[in-house]
Amino acid sequence: GRPIYIERGGLFNADELIKCRGYEWLMRFFMYNHEVKMKFRLPVCSEEAGKRIERTTLLVDFMGASFSRNM
Fold first, then answer.
1. pTM here?
2. Residue 57 in 3-state DSSP?
3. Could you tell me which of 49, 58, 64, 70 has the fewest CB atoms within 10 Å of its CB?
């Protein structure tokens, strides 16, 4: 099967993070994490599985999250 990546978005306050770091920083953070996964994690998963793995399953847990409509 595919590796499962779990993003726990409910563990941080997105509005406060955007105020502190900015929306662009947050988007770059998520893109960077995706690139790390593609460049480093998937090759290791492929080696362990003995076959090429190019896709993952992403689960996003927003329990406890709050987002304003004015992002």
1. 0.61
2. strand
3. 70
d(CA 12, CA 62) in angstroms, rounded, equals 9
Say which amino acid occupies 54.
E
Q: Which residues pair with residue 58 across a beta bridge?
A: 5
Distances (CA, A) of 53 to 18, 19, 26: 33, 37, 27
H or E segment and range at residue 59: strand 57-60
Task: Name which of 46, 30, 37, 51 is nearest 5 in CA terms.
Answer: 37
Residue with tokens 């306050």: 13
Which residues contact residue 4 at a Cβ distance below 8 angstroms, ignoring those fewer than 6 apart?
56, 57, 58, 59
